[in-house]
Design goal:
By secondary structure, the chain is mainly alpha-helical. Helix content is about 70%, strand content about 0%. The chain has 9 helices and no strands. The longest helix is centred in the first third of the chain and has 25 residues, at about 10-35. It is globular.
Length: about 210
Amino acid sequence: MSELSLPAPVSLPNRLLRLYAGLALYGAAVALLIESRLGGSPWDVFHQGLTVHLGLSIGTWIILVGALVMLLWIPLRQKPGVGTLSNVLFLGLFADAALRLLPAPDPLAARWAFLLAGVVATAAATALYIGAGLGPGPRDGIMTGLVRLGLSIRLARTLIEVTVLAAGWLLGGTVGVGTVVFALAVGPLTQFFTPMLGLRHPAARS
C-alpha cells in the first residue's frame, strides 16, 4: 500500500467530484490570494515573476509551469494520473476565471479576509483533490514524492514553498506579508485537512 491512500474504497464518480471540486477551489484560492494584494502564495509569486518578464496571464503560467514541473517527477518515480493531467489542463483556467469574477477589495480588513480564506482554501483543496486518489497535481506530486522518501506532509510542503518563493522573488514577483503567512501556514493546514478530506498519512496512524 502506498504512503498516501484513500481510507476506504470510493466510487469513481465520487472521486471525480472530489478532484474537480478541489481544482475549482484551488483556482478560487489563487484568485483570493492575488486579489488580496498582500502577497500571493510562493507559486503565485513565481508565476507573477514570469508574467513580469514574459507576459501571459497567471492562469496560463500555471498551466505551462505545471507541465514543466512534471519533469521533476522522473527522479522521484512519481506516476501521473487523471488528476495530474486535469490539474495541468484546468487549474489555470479555474484561476483565470475566478480572477475575472472576484472583486479587488480596498479595505484592509477585507484584503486580510481574502488572504486568510485563500490560504485555508489552498490547503483544503490540496487534500481534497489528492484524496480523490486519481493522481496529485504536478506541484503536489513533488510533495507526495518527498513524503514517500520519509518526510512529513508538513515538512515536504513547507520546503517546496520556501524554495519556490525564493525563485519567484528573484524573478521579480511580489512578496508581502501574505506570502509569509502562506509559506508558514499551508503545510500544517494541509496536514490538518488530510484526514478530514480523504487522505491518510502513516505518521497519523496509531
